[in-house]
Amino acid sequence: MPIRAAEPDCFPPNLLDGFASGDDSRRWWAAYTLPRQEKSLARQLGAMQVPFYLPLVSQVRLVGGRKQKSFLPVFSSYVFVFASDEERIGALETNRIAQLLTTKDVDGLTRDLCNIRKLIESGEPLTVESRLRAGQRVRVKNGALEGIEGTIVERRGEERLLVAVEFLQQGVSILISDFQVERS
Fold first, then answer.
1. pLDDT tens-digit readout, 70-80
2. Distance between CA atoms of 146 and 144, rounded to whole angstroms?
3. Which of 54, 108, 126, 134 is most buried per CB count within 10 Å?
């Protein structure tokens, strides 16, 4: 049983499905939160009707001999906010944000976030990767992850597909076989 029920990781739910395209009054921000404030910030942003994306993955731990399921942020201390200037100021007034980072490559960030979301929704076990390494760029050829682009990395003798948010120099990886991918 979860310590706390799963909460929305995205507001509005269609944010990464084209909601953000064509809206010139808003732009993407990476909100670097104070420690352990990601979900609290997301709840407040949702209540304020400010679009956000907080990638979450479930984790099961044994506590006192019982299994407890919790939902943890993929990128510790980061919430992605799609806000106007007024909404940005409102987000800062929550006193949960240490710093707001902006990106010049909006399309690249949106594509990276869509890829991360698709990996999370696949239900496959993910490994959080904290620094990028040079490697072969590939695209998944078929299956549920078809079209996702990333880099092949090797961890403990296994090949993994690393999908990164280049802007943060962080990402997640998933176990993959070479026959599932092609060069991009």
1. 889 999 999 99
2. 6
3. 54
Report residue 85 as tokens: 């200037």
pLDDT digits (tens, 9 = 90+) for 43-93: 999 999 999 999 999 888 888 889 888 889 999 999 999 999 999 999 999
State pLDDT tens for residues 114-147.
999 999 999 888 888 766 555 888 899 888 899 9
| Domains in the chain with CATH codes | 1-102 (3.30.70), 104-184 (2.30.30)
User: Which residues have a Cβ under 8 Å from the Cβ of 18 and sit 6 or more positions away?
Assistant: none
Residue 177 to residue 184: CA distance in whole angstroms: 16
